[in-house]
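Trying the structure run again after the queue cleared.
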Amino acid sequence: MLKVKNDTPIELPLTYVGKMTQQQLEKHLWDAADILRGKIDSGDFKHYIFGLLFFKRLCDVWEEEYEERLNLYKDAQLAADPEEHRFHIPPGAFWNDVRKHSTNIGEQLNAAFRAIEDANTRLRGVFQDVDFNNKERFPDATLELLLQHFSKHRLRKCDVEADVLGASYEYLISKFADDAGKKGGEFYTPKMVTRLIIECLQPEEGMSVYDPTCVWFWRYVIGSSKLSQASGKKL
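Done. Tokens:
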């Protein structure tokens, strides 16, 4: 990770830098869920795994933007300016800031999540009710293993394309739903149900669709050939 100290960029070691395939990312996330297995209900995996995934992605992309701007401006302070980044990561709320702690890790994670949400109005509520500060469910040893696991791969845009991230998210939602049994239906709509809904709606070019859940329709509307197959037309 790159941080600014006295206007001087400091490079910290990273591991497993390089392009990740969808299969690699899916396995990486599923292995993370295995660390929590038996400690929390499988129906809750999505909150914690995706919370950490988003936190790591935000921090890694910030670093990527910082390096690009540092190379462009040759000014560490300007490269770290919040106006130069899509999302602002407050000092002390970076991934590696949390990694420095070996005790009260859950408290540090919660503080980082809240700081990021407070600094970015567009991210308010994105971490939902994720709470790692429960030592009965998340002792420091477990959280250390979880953070070590997520630290294995860098998640910059150059490492993980947005499409790969989105497809892996959908895969994990499906896997978590299967693992959770009946509870899974509360947060995942199976693909065959989605296709049936689209076929019933028979969307036409130029139509708008109201989807208050923002879950099922976007998977086929946004750049999806499957919608074209279902409707016979490209929207």
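The domain at 2-161 is CATH 1.20.1260.30 (Ferritin). Worth checking whether this holds up in the mutant runs.
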